[in-house]
């Protein structure tokens, strides 16, 4: 690829016919300026055919590669130009959402396991410029010849080491072999640990390595539990921390259920997140965590990276992972981008910590009140992007017909066929009575609590 001038990359937005640029995209995303990693990545992607981008979770890798690849899309083409492979449906949805929020006008679709094949065929009837998907689903669509790879010139393997780790190597090889015209490959990861297979076909890649950026604001502390089950100590620790967003990490879904039951008995509002859950339930957990309905989620390492969740003040290792790599990824959920954060290790008093944990002083837990009930609740609306519903339409419904003030309306998320709105918990029933079976755009919608 020819070297291009880096800076604000102008491109034609096909839907509006207006020239938009990077500055306007950042304004839409409410980002004042790019961080050093994003700027360096942009330079590399615009001047190198192959790029490896290594940077910790939460540092903005998605935007780092989206900005330059969107700047290089052909506005006249109605073919798929970019394929982004990701290890999980949550990451696929996150990238799709970021791309839509950029407001470029380029069609983007995400496909993944757990979604109906009919919906994939419907969405891909008109080619997106950018296709995002998990390797298993993309390989399946290729076998069924649902889309063509002839015009795909850019391949992005986001969190590529995670895809390899969970067993997608065969599918990734099959997909890459089926793309004869790729001119640029971009690989991202949070660490340097993974070996890149030969079938990826990298040629003299530029490497942007921020993986060793140390975040001095991260504190690691140990909490000693007198009981082996550690449940009572967990609740005391949550009271000690106070009302702040955080994740409690466990190794097994059975442990998550045990912890969840104990938190429920102690009236501590929370969500759960692990691989055995239905896709819709996992997605709703993240939505409620993002909008403040949940301050806590109890999760496996599936939540350690690749998810669109807010900055956290703490994480708790209820169970320690077997390897240092997972420990690092979990801790990366807090103290991100130079913010303060604490990782607490819950340790039974007779338990021995692994060698990879050093300098973790003991925290003395003081008696404190348990976290208060949620301020926000989440309402579900049976109308989404497919019905041409926007955030503005939903806000208008709740402000006018619902009689709410602007400062009472929380985060709105519009999905393909539904939407979610955070509202004050005290107003939930009143709003359901006022808004259920209301007309939104041309459709009558149902409004209910999630």
The CATH superfamily of the largest domain appears as P-loop containing nucleotide triphosphate hydrolases
Residue ranges: pLDDT <50 for 5 or more in a row?
1-20
Which strand order does the major sheet show? Answer: 5-6-4-7-8-3-9
Structural class by sheet pairing and helices: alpha/beta
Query: How helix-rich are the residues, as a percent range?
Result: 25-40%
Overall spatial form: globular
CATH class of the largest domain: Alpha Beta
Strand residue percentage: 15-25%
| Mean pLDDT over all positions | 89
Largest sheet: 7 strands, parallel
Number of domains: 3
Question: How far do the termini sit from each other?
Answer: 48 Å
Number of helical elements: 14
How large is the radius of gyration?
23 Å
Question: Based on the structure given, which CATH architecture of the largest domain is correct?
Answer: 3-Layer(aba) Sandwich
How many beta strands in the DSSP annotation? 21
CATH topology of the largest domain: Rossmann fold
Explain this structure to me?
The protein is of the alpha/beta class and 450 residues long. It folds into three domains: 11-209, P-loop containing nucleotide triphosphate hydrolases (Rossmann fold), CATH 3.40.50; 218-348, P-loop containing nucleotide triphosphate hydrolases (Rossmann fold), CATH 3.40.50.300; 376-449, RRM (RNA recognition motif) domain (Alpha-Beta Plaits), CATH 3.30.70.330. The protein has helices at 22-28, 36-47, 61-71, 89-101, 117-123, 135-143, 160-165, 169-177, 231-241, 253-265, 279-290, 324-331, 391-401, 428-435, and strands at 11-12, 19-20, 50-54, 82-85, 108-111, 130-133, 154-157, 184-189, 206-209, 218-225, 246-249, 271-273, 296-299, 314-317, 341-348, 376-381, 412-414, 419-424, 438-440, 443-445, 447-449. A hairpin with a 6-residue loop joins β1 and β2. α2 (36-47) runs parallel beside α3 (61-71) and α6 crosses α8 (169-177). The longest helix has 13 residues, at 89-101. The protein is globular and about 65 Å long.
């Amino acid at each position: 690829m020819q070297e291009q001038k880096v800076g604000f990359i102008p491109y034609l937005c096909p839907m509006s016919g207006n020239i938009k640029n990077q500055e306007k995209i950042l304004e839409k995303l409410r980002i004042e300026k790019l961080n050093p990693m994003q700027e360096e990545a942009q330079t590399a992607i615009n001047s190198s055919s192959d790029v490896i981008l290594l940077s910790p979770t939460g540092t903005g890798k998605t935007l780092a590669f989206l900005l330059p690849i969107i700047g290089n899309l052909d506005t006249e083409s109605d073919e798929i130009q970019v394929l982004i492979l990701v290890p999980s449906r949550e990451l696929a949805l996150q990238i799709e959402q970021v791309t839509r929020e950029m407001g470029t006008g380029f069609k983007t679709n995400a496909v993944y396991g757990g979604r109906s094949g009919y919906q994939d065929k419907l969405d891909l009837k008109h080619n997106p410029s950018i296709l995002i998907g998990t390797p298993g689903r993309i390989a399946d669509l290729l076998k069924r010849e649902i889309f063509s790879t002839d015009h795909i010139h850019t391949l992005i393997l986001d969190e590529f080491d995670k895809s390899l780790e969970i067993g997608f190597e065969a599918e990734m090889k099959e997909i890459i072999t089926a793309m004869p015209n790729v001119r640029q490959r971009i690989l991202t990861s949070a660490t340097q640990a993974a070996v890149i297979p030969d079938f990826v076909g990298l040629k003299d890649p530029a490497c942007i390595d921020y993986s060793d950026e140390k975040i001095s604001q991260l504190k690691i502390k140990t909490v000693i539990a007198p009981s082996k089950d550690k449940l009572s100590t967990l609740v005391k620790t949550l009271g000690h921390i106070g009302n702040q967003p955080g994740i409690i990490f466990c190794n097994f879904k059975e442990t998550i259920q045990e912890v969840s039951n104990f938190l429920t008995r102690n009236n501590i509002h929370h969500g759960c997140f692990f691989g055995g859950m239905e896709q819709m339930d996992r997605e709703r957990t993240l939505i409620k965590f993002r909008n403040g309905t949940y301050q806590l989620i109890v999760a496996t390492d599936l939540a350690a990276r690749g998810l669109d969740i807010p900055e956290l003040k703490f994480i708790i290792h209820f169970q320690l992972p077997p390897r240092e790599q997972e420990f690092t990824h979990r801790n990366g959920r807090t103290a991100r981008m130079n913010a303060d954060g604490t990782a607490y290790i819950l340790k039974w008093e007779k338990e021995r910590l692994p060698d990879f944990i050093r300098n973790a002083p003991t925290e003395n837990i003081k008696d404190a009140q348990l976290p208060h009930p949620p301020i926000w609740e989440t309402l579900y609306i049976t109308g989404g992007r497919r019905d041409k519903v926007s955030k503005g339409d939903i806000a208008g419904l709740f402000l006018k017909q619902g009689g709410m003030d602007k400062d009472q309306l929380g985060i709105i998320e519009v999905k393909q066929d539904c939407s979610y709105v955070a509202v004050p918990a005290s107003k939930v029933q009143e709003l359901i009575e006022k808004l259920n079976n209301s007309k939104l755009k041309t459709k009558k919608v149902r409004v209910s609590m999630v």
